[in-house]
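Dissemination and training. As part of the outreach component of the grant, students in the summer workshop were shown how a complex can be specified as a set of sequence lines and then modelled as a single object. The example used during the hands-on session is reproduced here so that future cohorts can follow it. Participants entered these lines:
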Amino acid sequence: MGYKAKFRVWRGEGGEGRLEDFTVEVNEGEVVLDVIHRLQATQAPDLAVRWNCKAGKCGSCSMEINGRPRLGCMTRMSTFEESETITVTPMRTFPVIKDLVTDVSFNYKKAREIPSFTPPSDVKPGEYRMQQIDVERSQEFRKCIECFMCQNVCHVIRDHEENKQSFAGPRFLMRIAELDMHPYDVADRKESAQEEHGLGYCNITKCCTEVCPEHIKITDNALIPMKERVVDRKYDPLVWLGSKIFKRSS
Amino acid sequence: MERHEYDVVVIGAGGAGLRAAIEARQQGKRTAIVCKSLFGKAHTVMAEGGAAAAMGNVNPDDNWMVHFRDTMRGGKFLNNWRMAELHAKEAPDRVWELEAWGALFDRTKDGKISQRNFGGHEYPRLAHVGDRTGLELIRTLQQRVVALQQEDEKLHGDPEAYIKVFAECTVTRLLKDGDAISGAFAYWRETGEFIVFDAPAVVLATGGIGKSFVVTSNSWEYTGDGHALALLAGAKLINMEFIQFHPTGMVWPPSVRGILVTESVRGDGGVLRNSEGRRFMFDYIPDVFKDKYATTEEEGDRWYNDQANNRRPPELLPRDEVARAINAEVKAGRGSPQGGVFLDVSSRLPAAEIIRRLPSMHHQFKELADVDITKEPMQVGPTCHYIMGGVEVDADTGSSSVPGLFAAGEVSGGMHGSNRLGGNSLSDLLVFGRRAGAGAAAYVDGLAKRPAVTGLEEARAEALAPLERTGGENPYEVHHELQRTMNDLVGIIRKAEEVSEALQVIEKLKERAKNTASAGSRIYNPGWHLAIDLRNMLLVSECVARAALLREESRGGHTRDDHPGMSPEWRRRLLVCAAQADGSAVTVEEQVQPGMRADLISLFERSELEKYLTEDELADYDAAVKES
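and obtained this result:
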């Protein structure tokens, strides 16, 4: 059942590195991360890779497999031909620390730039009343496991380092949409989405949606509706105010 | 060496750690969160079912007393009853608080937080978000930390003035000044450089120990760090023999063996069958639960829609009972092709409903096992999931016996007795995370002067040793052998001679671990990190095995093939582990568990207590009832 697979893994630290070739055993039912772990245990004990749950729930083992951003734990070896050479490289948009581990601090910095959930001051814990249908839109976005693959693949920053300053990236633009659609959030997020977090840079190529391991429709359900809200707001702030009040009272 | 001064250092950034840190910061303490992974990746994200809190949103008859009773029953009355009381009383407030911080739980028709059924809980009690409740909890707490940092930025111009996350940073030693805690010694995973925290209070929130077993639902981080750090610092561990094997882990394919299949599958109608198609759980209802569970499939099935007039199906017995039953079926040759049993929801609910209620499970089986759970049954079997044992703490403050050392969540012991109910973990994190954070803050307020750190050189030398040796043992091999040993010899069913054999193997592995060599540099070197973690895993495994050998009865997460009965005499005895600062001379001593307060014990019927208590204790109970 097992076979020997050919792997090319990016190895290196301190800004330098190269692809290294390995021949490694693969058994039935394994995923790419299993094979990386076997390399650690048998051939390359200091091979660096992030991982935690190995069940697609924590979003730690993001890497590029044959050039496509994937979770190592959710990429089954059976999706490749046995004769195929599998190339594993770190996420390209973030600086490499070592081997497959990248410096993702950009994302934590951006997270801190988004104003937090802002409930009305007169609602106490335990008094929140919301209908399932009203929370479902934001719930979809809260499925995000922060693997940062959407950030990695978004061409606004993947090929343009200079945009990192003024662009929050799909993950955090979606966070703004999540809060804007929260039935109890009272902050005005439309103008800042456009002016401060770079919503306008997004030209809806849907690369983020395609790589999302949680199958969140980032572009269709978060970014495009957010863009529409920004436009509505620009034409008619009263419509925005009215809709906010209406939502609160329902 | 890099040095930082804090009031409170929280080790671990799962639910308990984050809730403790939030509390310490809210009480004005300069707080550090030190965690092995990235911020937001903790094992808490794996929790699926929900957080148990008697809010009474679905069934108004629910209240803290019912929850308290369920928790004590689940733990077979070995629980620290004060913890179980605080937990049951405070869980609703902790859940509601999350909502005010932005959490979006699933809703009832009248707009309240929805609550689902779970094993051992009398009423629908688990606040949930589909089957990804743990992720919601972590994200909400993570975002609460960020909100506090935004506040601090406005007030002090620095978001990290009062609460800072040190991610991918591993603590290897707690530092002391005399008897009291004075800080922690750690290394950055990214660079291998060392970092010292000067702090009078440390909160351990490091989770569990599952990585000492081969088949486990736990992630790599679960190497028993907090358990070991506490022991080495002079604190005591209790109940280490009690390990919960979750009844339903995936069994196929081999690479995902052990990954959790949420209990919600059963709570929402899924049934367990053997290879003969029989719903075998009806054959395994123990006497203590006889009057609480359905005896026919018809009654069990009616319960899902009419809980007032029917008893619950036995698939929802506490986890230890279900795990043992599955084990017995497989042993009797009635297992599934890949060595588990069948868990079927496909014939019980419409496909769309399964996908709505159990989205993660649907996704997980499709992606990892190529199984569509809306069309065919899953194969499942027991997996090492949770340790009930941990640091012995004061219920109200989370304080250990070492001044300045606190613990909360899975790393602490007592709350769950001999077996934890599903859903009681997330609520435990919130209730006791908050209490430990408050306890640490109050402790710091009461200090006359800050303690001084000592022992830096020793800590440094210990951490560097694997890198400085050449030609030693491969740490991956030592780890693998420990996992096999614990799985095979101190697993779900235990025997004296097997546990003794495990202790001999552990002794040898300890020697081998002292001789591990890690090739490569200090930069993000997993071989080196594992060599350091081995010390903790071996120490904790030794505690588990020693306690398991001593306890000559079967109760909850401790089943002795050679002592199958539950003994009222043993119920009052807790096994307490201690060790020397170098990890040698692990001792286990018996300690008497204090009797339950009169108003709490009066919540139970005498007929139920007779199954658990000694004659003397029953006499005390009679007196308590008479008085009230």
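The domain at 456-567 of chain B is CATH 1.20.58.100 (Methane Monooxygenase Hydroxylase; Chain G, domain 1). Students were then asked to discuss how this feature might be tested experimentally.
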